[in-house]
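Q: For a teaching handout, I want to show students what a protein-ligand complex looks like in token form. Below are the inputs, and the small molecule is nicotinamide-adenine-dinucleotide. Please produce the holo structure.
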Amino acid sequence: MQELRVELGERSYKIIIGKGILPDIGRALRGLNPSKVALISNPKVYGLYGDRVSDSLASEGIEHHKVIIPDGERYKSLLWADFIYGELLRARLDRASIIVALGGGVVGDISGFVASTYMRGIRFIQVPTTLLAQVDSSVGGKTGVNHLLGKNMIGTFYQPSLVWIDIETLKSLPKRELIAGLAEVIKYGVIWDRGFFEFLEAERVGILSVEDDPISHIIGRSCEIKSEVVSRDERESGLRAILNFGHTIGHAIETATGYGRYLHGEAVAIGMVYESRLSDMPKDEITKIEEVISSYGLPTKIPPEIEPKALLSSMEVDKKALSGVLRFVIPKAIGSVIVEGVDRDRILSVISDR
Ligand code: NAD
Ligand code: GLY
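A: Here is the structure, written as tokens, with nicotinamide-adenine-dinucleotide included.
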């Protein structure tokens, strides 16, 4: 079992990573002394893992209430947040209660958002069950829901009290979801740690077979890197922006394809390939990034039917466009990045090369 810590003063919290640790969550929660618990999940994840969590809470004598929302990104909405508030009120959760989010990033984001607003904020615990949620969304305190006019447009910064990662849950995750999560893992190598990037290059077979040792290592190292970045810049006023490597182009691809064609990590993978090409690194380093992304079965090309100018306009409405200049996270070398404004012609030339 690994224990990491996100250092944020009095809001610091632990990340526990282990194999088969879901049945121990009741004991961890007992230590936090909740008056009641709401266990939020979706039908698929609850069907797979809900009983393990529920039995563990029951064995510690913790009163808990199940709250199930439908599975899918479109349910990460204010409407479904309102449904959850209703369930919490009916079950009489109070300021000493705790929300447990059991699921992927969708369940984690909406549960965190509800926790941050219910009775002006109650504690919550992340129990992420997708690789993306284990290496990214459960750590760092970004919570939120979507609006018709934009993804993740309504939200808060609100840290969990604990992140509880059972790597065994990845065994039931569809391969495509696992691989999409690996895009964010590769991201950490490029932005922060060349040695980690090389590990990903060398250990591909074990990682794709979900072997315990390499999987524990990549989750642990990803969480360490994210924790380090978030501890230094919780509210994205500077350093935290580097976590958006690949996301400026990635988001624009998701928008252009109506969010139906690519999983988030797949779009980010394409984004990382093209954003690397904005770099003045030696060509073979840029190619190495593309090769590792491709070796994991992730897509690397912007589909030809997406017009470069349309893609650029979509990036210009992105949150990261400051005073009309588009800013990108660009590798200086594998393992280190800078955030820099790039002019339109250069972007157009890079994204036109298919
Ligand atoms: P998801 O939550 O939709 O999960 C993907 C699918 O896998 C779902 O169908 C889910 O039911 C299923 N699933 C979950 N765990 C499973 C398991 N162990 N076995 C089998 N199936 C399982 O998607 P996601 O990729 O985890 O998260 C995407 C969301 O995360 C997006 O809403 C995105 O905006 C958000 N996100 C948030 C942050 C953040 O910092 N808060 C960062 C990145 C992404
Ligand atoms: N996923 C980017 C961040 O948490 O800042």
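A: Two things your students might notice: The pocket of glycine (ligand 2) is lined by residues 136, 140, 142, 240, 243 (CB under 6 Å). The CA atoms of residues 63 and 329 lie 46 Å apart.
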